[in-house]
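Protein modeling request. Please complete all fields; requests missing the sequence field cannot be processed.
Requester role: graduate student
Desired output: 3D structure, token encoding
Chains: 1
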Amino acid sequence: MKTGFYTGRFQPFHLGHLSAVTQALKEVDFLIIGIGSAQYSRTADNPFTSEERAAMIRAGLIENGIPENKFKIIPIPDIHDNATWPAHVHSLVPPFDVVFVGDDGLVKELFEKYDKVPVKTVDIEVDIRATQIREMIRNDDSNWEKYVSSAVASHIKEAGYSAIRGDE
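Delivered output (168 residues):
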């Protein structure tokens, strides 16, 4: 069985993330989804707890036909040491054969520099950033909902809407 790894902060889990997971699952049998910066929450950049993010991810994937036996969600706290971060990830998650990334950013750089696992960049099919979604919510721009699945929108409204706005 081929296993992949995909990580992000998922603040919140949006359609770009969903696209990346869907692409990854076309190449692997099972996907480990790492919730990065897991220890941070209730800040402007990290409004949701790792538990809230996991619930959003699970709901978004299931709503879009991805069965729970195809993925596992694991929180990954930051350690603020780039050279040892890939080893830190390996210490927290089951073995994986390939890392999936959405861009040429830090995750790609660290795994290519400090690890032997191949890195594959997924196509950007939905060009949105969680930062933009949080800004839309803060500005009462209802267009944010078109960038997340309806299950994730429900979680945001129920669990963390006020966290993004900073009125908790």
